[in-house]
Amino acid sequence: MKKSLRPLLLLLALTGCERLLVPPDRAAAPGAVFETLWRSVGEKYPYFTLKAVDWNAVGRRYRAQVRPEMTRDELFTLLSRMLSELQDGHVNLTNPGPPVRNFSFYDSLQRRFPVNYNDSLVRVRYLAGGRTIGPFGLRVLPDNVAYVRCASFSGGRWKPETVDELFEAVAGTKGVIFDVRHNGGGEVDNAALLIGRLIAETTTVGYARTRNGPQPDDFTAWVPNVVKPRGTPYAGRVAVVVNRRSYSAAHLFAVFAAGLPRVTVVGGRTGGGSGAPAGGELPNGWTYRYSALDIADVRYVSQENGLNPDVLETLTPADVRAGRDPIIERARAEVLR
Amino acid sequence: MGLVLKTLAQPAPVRSLGVEAGSLVFRDEFLSPLRYAALPVGLTFQGFESKKQGAANTECSVLYGITSPRRTLRYDVVGALNRYERLFRLHHSQRATTWWGPALSVGGLVRLRRPYPVGDGVGNNFAGGDVSLGLGLALRGERRLGDRALLRGQAHLPLVEGLLSAGPVHPPQVFRPRVGEVFRTYASVQPVWNRLQVQSRLSLDFGLREAAGRRGPRTRGWRASYAFAFQRFEKPVAVRLGYSLLGLARVF
């Protein structure tokens, strides 16, 4: 062999072995699945201290129940119970199937809280005769207060022009009510679009940070959440109407709006969900989601457990029978003050 | 005498633009303990210039790969790389048609990786970008095969890198940290045992001929290549990534 070809052969020997250098997946035994989930959440979840959860103790308690022979169904149930200790609607566990199983704590958040919303009442009493602009239901009430029903922030990022159209429609009103009750959230960008029409200059509306170490209080520095203004800011007063099912992006909309002048939050305590979710995959193919980001208000206070409104108001079955929503009525009064 | 000899004797830049496809596997421990695989395809530009004391390489590539399994990664792998390096020969054997030997490599790269959004579109992986300037060792060989073909191989291993690197990307949309904040967090000098990157490329230039160019005679022809890379990072998160690519390019 010619000497000059030896280096080329050496190069060839280096090639094509990526599958050896990135070894195959480890075993997906129940113990490995448990440890992966427990460790991943333990390293990334930001609210252990806020929620007073000792994740090590949780791990010890549930690890003792893991058995090598347990079925997938039993393991799924056990892991779901472990995750439910976090009482976080952004925490999920999903088995893509078969059989498809999904654990979410979201529905449990509403326990012990009044519903504070009746969709039929809103449609008949406050939206009838109004119009629809993109995701918004809009009606300008007789006292020149605009009622805007926003049922979701999901379905992708809104076009800024749609939000512009909404604010053109409410320009000249004495006040605007944004009703985000039973709004489970979605794109936080959409909340920022609305906020952008309420401010005249670039505004810090809150702060965010992530875990960056093994201890529960290992965090990055706070990073400002900045929203830029868009167009002429709305001139009237604003009320944001919330309930316990105002969650995630809807909750954050209320949190950020609450820090602005001329804004009043009315209704029941929100569902929280400040922690923007991220996710991962377990060795057996199940996927999980967890709150990855600690988002705080302008006072650096995390509102993960729910925002208490400026004005607490409830909707009772008697109110519904009477065809009147006291929460919206109170919001009307607030913007007309 | 053909142009190949002329190229070796009178250094002239050679450029190529072509397509590559192959196999890619990676494991990003922050995202998942699973090994993901992809079938990447991409575009690659390469520039090569012989220097008196070594060589200069430029490589720009964009790779796209559909990953599997797709439960977590609802989006596909996209990466972009722009690298420039200079090789300084430490020892070489040069005859009329061949030189090979170890070299000192000095160079830098800019690399971008797209985040893999999960759930509500929030990325959860080692993504973003690297900017690095490194010093390492290289092995290079070149051999003429007749008048119209050239076999060339090169492997290099950065020994130490000054690095600006983004970490896991999971802050969401409007609350995206400023780029400067992220990169400052992970500015570091990384030795080879923390950040191993092996790269090699074997290429066969064929059908070479001389053609007139705007700035004088240029080499024209085709290039078939085989590229391999393996990266192992421990910080800011544990990542293993390796790929092999077959390519066909136009030399111009």
How would you sum up this structure, described in words?
The complex is a heterodimer of chains A (337) and B (252). By secondary structure, chain A is an alpha/beta fold. Chain A contains eleven helices and 14 strands. With 252 residues, chain B is mainly beta. Chain B has two helices and 14 strands. A ten-stranded antiparallel beta barrel of chain B has the order 1-2-3-4-6-9-10-12-13-14. In chain B, strand 1 and strand 2 form a beta hairpin. The two termini of chain B are 20 Å apart. In chain B, 46% of the residues are buried. The N terminus of chain B is likely disordered.
Instruction: Tell me the Rg of chain B in angstroms.
Output: 20 Å
| Widest β-sheet, arrangement of strands of chain B | 1-2-3-4-6-9-10-12-13-14
Query: Structural class of the secondary elements of chain B?
Result: mainly beta
What's the SSE pattern of chain B?
HEEEEEEEEEEHEEEE
Stretches of chain A where pLDDT is under 50 for at least 5 consecutive residues are none
Question: Considering DSSP H and I runs of 4 or more, what fraction of the residues of chain B is helical?
Answer: under 10%
- Number of helical segments of chain B? 2
